[in-house]
Design brief:
Layout (H helix, E strand, L loop, with lengths): L1 E5 L8 H13 L8 E6 L1 H4 L8 E5 L7 H14 L3 E4 L12 E4 L4 H4 L10 H21 L2 E4 L2 H10 L8 E3 L23 E4 L8 H8 L7 E4 L4 H7 L7 E4 L4 H10 L2 E4 L8 H8 L4 E4 L2 H7 L4 E3 L4 H9 L15 H17 L2
Parallel strand pairs: 1-2, 1-4, 2-3, 4-5, 5-6, 6-7, 8-9, 8-11, 9-10, 11-12, 12-13
Helix pairs in contact: 1-13, 7-12
């Protein structure tokens, strides 16, 4: 059977989706032996990426969420004679008749909308949001199977799409990168005894509650690991930056070092699909202060300290009582090999139904 794998998100430049795609693709082919895997790639990796013998590299050099994606991907799949399409995201082409297995990492865009969530003009934002809703609905309702990272996302999906059969949605937990199992010897200039935030500054990340808490904690420093963006600039505008330290474009060893040296990681999100930064912090022995939301309860259990993400005073209270901490003892046995194995099982089941 010919299985097309849309790996256009391959590479660290795509941040979380890129890491997910890269790690799964490293292990998935060996669990799909006997199948012909048509791996769709952007030009950056088409010539350099080495793949097993059961993989055929296919150049698919068009952007995600674009009109070209919707027009040319169906033509490409038809030309390849693909029997099944597996995607690392929800954006399967709406005109394609090839059965699909989708990945829905979260439904954040379904729950968070409005001018504060975009840098686009109102008309363009409205157009893109309508496109997102249509592509998501079309993909979810027509997919052979849907992979999600948590039961929390599965429940949200079933709430938003009541006609969706629950057995079609498969929660497959993610895994930290293996590099977080190895102590880092990298060096990064850092303030002493700092709090850490890792992520972006989109509104659902709720970074503002941490910045507000910092104003009531005059001895605390905050290190933010994030790409500079209009959202981050907007949040930091008018604030005292003397105790706020911005880092971006870190190598993996440098990121591990920043985690290792932190007093605690703060994860204040209002909604997530999973929560890898918290697991990464725990892996290197750094305590985690987490918003009390269902997905974090599912992923972190009793290994972290929770606070009300709507309450600055509650976050201040938790940080104040953090005190001197010793490295946490935490083992997370989930690996990307296991993730890929579980995904392969879903793909095999979907192929059997064709």
């Amino acid at each position: 059977m010919r299985i097309a794998i849309d790996a256009r998100f391959y590479g660290s430049e795509h941040t979380g989706l890129g890491r997910y795609t890269t790690n799964v693709l490293a292990h998935l082919p060996r669990y799909l032996k006997g199948q012909t895997l048509q791996v769709l790639l952007r030009s950056k990796y088409y010539n350099t990426l080495k793949l097993p013998k059961n993989c055929q590299k296919v150049l698919a050099d068009f952007s995600h969420y674009s009109l070209a994606e919707q027009l040319y991907l169906p033509l490409l799949l038809s030309k390849l004679g693909s029997d099944l399409l597996y995607t690392f995201h929800f954006n399967a082409p709406i005109l394609s008749r090839v059965p699909s297995v989708l990945t829905v990492h979260d439904l954040i865009k379904s729950y968070f909308s409005g001018p504060e969530t975009t840098t686009r003009s109102p008309w363009l934002y409205s157009l893109k949001r309508a496109g997102y809703q249509y592509v998501l609905r079309r993909g979810v309702t027509h997919a052979q199977a849907i992979i999600v990272p948590t039961n929390t996302v599965k429940n949200q999906l079933l709430t938003n799409f009541p006609s969706l059969p629950p057995e079609r949605v498969h929660p497959i937990p993610e895994a930290p990168d293996p590099i977080f199992c190895i102590p880092s010897t990298a060096k990064v200039t850092l303030p002493p005894n700092y709090l850490l935030f890792v992520g972006n500054a989109y509104p659902h990340k709720n970074l503002s509650v941490l910045l507000d808490a910092l104003t009531q904690l005059p001895k605390e420093h905050l290190v933010i690991v994030a790409h500079e963006s209009p959202f981050l600039i907007r949040l930091l505008s008018g604030r005292d930056l003397s105790r706020i330290h911005l880092l971006s474009s870190l190598t993996d060893p440098e990121l591990v070092f920043v985690y290792q040296q932190a007093r605690a990681l703060v994860a204040p999100s209002l909604m997530e699909g999973y929560g890898l930064p918290g697991l990464e912090a725990l892996m290197v022995g750094t305590p985690v202060i987490s918003s009390n939301i269902p997905v974090y309860r599912e992923v972190y259990g009793d290994k972290v300290t929770y606070f009300d993400p709507q309450s600055v005073s509650d976050l201040v209270r938790v940080i104040t009582h953090l005190g001197a901490t010793s490295p946490t003892s935490f083992k997370y046995s989930r690996t990307w090999d296991q993730v890929a194995c579980s995904i392969a099982e879903v793909i095999h089941e979907s192929c059997a139904r064709l």
